[in-house]
From TrEMBL:
InterPro entries noted in UniProt: EF-hand-dom_pair (IPR011992), TPP/p25 (IPR008907)
GO cellular component, one term: microtubule
BP-aspect Gene Ontology terms: microtubule bundle formation; microtubule polymerization; positive regulation of protein polymerization
Protein name: Tubulin polymerization promoting protein
Localization terms from the record: Cytoplasm
Protein family according to the UniProt entry: Belongs to the TPPP family.
Gene Ontology MF term list: tubulin binding
Keywords: Cytoplasm
Length: 177
C-alpha cells in the first residue's frame, strides 16, 4: 500500500495544539483547558488590560465550552476567538488570529552563573545533604532522603554484628574412645 500523507495543519491549528499540550504530559492536543486558553491569550497579546481583560477571556471560555466540560475543542476555540474579536471592540479581528498563529511555546532557559554552579555542585555538599547524592553527583532518590531502619537487632556500628548464631550453635559432640 501507499503511505499516508500527514494532514497539513494550519498555523492556527498548530498554535492550538501547542497550547493544548503545554504543561500536561497526558494531553492529546485535541482539547484546550481554561488555564492554557488564558495563557494563549496573554502570550499573544490579546489581553491588553483595557478593552479585553483576563475576566473577558474567562467569560468567553465559559460561554463557548460545553456545560459539563472543562475543555474546548478546536472549533470552539475558533468560536471563542471570533467572540473576542467581535465583542471586545477590536478594529481588526483577523489581526489577533494571525498573531496567535505565529506564537510558539518557549521553555525558560537556566542561567549559568558562578553562584548557581557553586550552589548546585554536589561535591561540596556536607552533612545529610551529601548523603542524597552518589559519587557522580546523581541523586539517590528515596534512598537518599529516607533513613532506612536497620532491623538486625544490633546497635549501629557494632563490629561483631551477625556473629551471634555462630556463638550459640551447639558444638559437635566427640565420640567416646
Amino acid at each position: 500500500g501507499r503511505a499516508k500523507t500527514p494532514v497539513e495543519l494550519t498555523a492556527l491549528e498548530e498554535a492550538f495544539r501547542r497550547f493544548a499540550v503545554h504543561g500536561d504530559t497526558r494531553a492529546t492536543g485535541r482539547d484546550l483547558h481554561g488555564k492554557n486558553w488564558s495563557k494563549l491569550c496573554k502570550d499573544c497579546g490579546v489581553i491588553d488590560g483595557k478593552s479585553i481583560t483576563l475576566t473577558d477571556v474567562d467569560i468567553v471560555f465559559s460561554k463557548v465550552k460545553n456545560k459539563s466540560s472543562r475543555t474546548i475543542t478546536y472549533n470552539q476555540f475558533r468560536e471563542a476567538l471570533s467572540e473576542l474579536a467581535s465583542g471586545g471592540d477590536l478594529q481588526d479581528g483577523g489581526r489577533e488570529v494571525a498573531h496567535i498563529s505565529g506564537v510558539t511555546v518557549r521553555a525558560t532557559r537556566a542561567v549559568a552563573s558562578p553562584t548557581v554552579s557553586r550552589l548546585t555542585d554536589t561535591t561540596k555538599f556536607t552533612g545529610s545533604h551529601k548523603e542524597r547524592f552518589d559519587e557522580t553527583g546523581r541523586g539517590k532518590g528515596k534512598a537518599g532522603r529516607v533513613d532506612l531502619v536497620d532491623k538486625s537487632g544490633y546497635v549501629s556500628g557494632y563490629k561483631h554484628a551477625g556473629t551471634y548464631e555462630k556463638k550459640v550453635q551447639p558444638k559437635p559432640q566427640q565420640k567416646p574412645m
